[in-house]
Description:
The chain is mainly alpha-helical and 122 residues long. The chain has one domain (4-121). The protein contains seven helices and no strands. The longest helix has 20 residues, at 53-72. Residues 1-9 have low confidence and may be disordered.
Amino acid sequence: MVALENCTELNGSGLLKALLELQRSWRITDSEAGILVRAAIPNKSSHAAVWDTDQMERMGYLFAIDKILTGIFTEQQKQTWLRTTQAANIFGQQSVLQKMLLGRVADLYVIERWLRSRLELM
């Protein structure tokens, strides 16, 4: 997975490839991935993906979230954590994925910061 700090080093097709990998790993639809990055997901064989600053910021948070989750969970545990409301007191009565699918970059930031703070406690 692509780390946040490496996000700007990728070209459009590299970011698309990383996004498609995240989509596969999280088992989300094209529509859900589109909401997360605020864009229609280009054809999977496209090599001409162009991302604006907002979309790159969103992908940076998503990749950072995935990197943290991959470091602490198995793939199955990651799926469960993304989809359950076990952290409801922090994210409202929603799963983490539901919170992210509200489409606000601030939610991605809050989730990434919360996960990072949990790592510091480990």
